[in-house]
Amino acid sequence: MNKILQHSVLLFILSLLLWSCRKQESYPEVQIFGHAGMGMDIGMSAFHDNSLEAVELALSLPTMDGVEVDVRMSKDGTLWLYHENKLEAHTDGVGCIFEKTDETLEKVRYKSLRREKLTRLDQIWPLLSPKHQLILDLKHWDECTAGYVDMQLFKEALYAIPLEFRDQIVLDSSNPNWLAQISQDFKVVFSTVTFVEGLKQLEKVPALSGLMMRSKDITAEQIAYLKTLGKESYLFEMRSSKKQRAALQKQPSAILADDPRGALVIRD
What we know:
Elements: H1 3-24, E1 31-35, H2 42-45, H3 52-60, E2 66-73, E3 79-81, H4 102-105, E4 119-120, E5 133-138, E6 141-142, E7 147-148, H5 151-159, E8 169-173, H6 176-182, E9 187-191, H7 195-204, E10 210-214, H8 220-228, E11 232-236, H9 241-249, E12 254-257, H10 260-267
Parallel strand pairs: 1-2, 1-12, 2-5, 5-8, 8-9, 9-10, 10-11, 11-12
Antiparallel strand pairs: 2-3, 3-4, 6-7
C-alpha cells in the first residue's frame, strides 16, 4: 500500500472516529432553553439578560426549544422581565419593581452598552412560534418589604396570559402550595436547592411536573429516578461549555443554557 493510500485510509478511519464521538455527544431528547434569553453573562450575548433583544435572538436560533425569563409584577399588576431584587443592581432605576408603576418602568434603562429598555411579558408573545416553550421564573418575593407580594394579584396577572399560549408555558416557583393552586391551568415545576426537599414536595404536591435545580446539586442517577416517577428535571447555572456538556450528559428533561449556541452545537 503506497503512502497516499495509507494516508487516505487513515483519514477515513479518523473521520469515522470523529463521527462516532459526535454521535455519542448527541442528546436529542434534552430540551435547550436560553437562560434569561441568551444567558446571564452579557459577554456571551451582547444583549442584557431578560431584554427583548436577548429573547428575540435566542428564539431565532433554528433548533432552540425556547427561553426562560425572570418575571416580576409592577404596582399596576403588570408582569415585567427582570432578574435582580432591586432596579439599581442593573438599571438606572431605584427600588423594587413591585412598588413602581408601569409608567415609571417604561422609562427605565439597563446600564449596559445598548441601554435596553425593561421588557413587559406581553411583548414576548409575538416572538413565540408554535414550537417554542417559555419558562417563567416567578419572582414573587419583595425585598423592599421583606415579604411576598399580593399573590392573588400575581395569580390574576398570570391568568391574563392569552389562552393560545398557555400550553407553551412552564411556571417555575419556590412556593409549591401556591403552584398547586394554578396547576390545573399551567404546567408547574418546583425550584429547590436540594433533591431531598424536591422529592418531599413532589410527594406532597403531586400536581408538580418536576424540579428546577442547579446542575451541580443533582446527579444523573437522581434525574433517572425522577423519570421513573414520571417527573421532569430542569437544570441551570452552567456558565461554561464544560459545565453545559456535563449537564447534558446527565440526560435531564431540559437545561437553561448560558451559552445557547454552544449547548445546541453539543446537543445537535
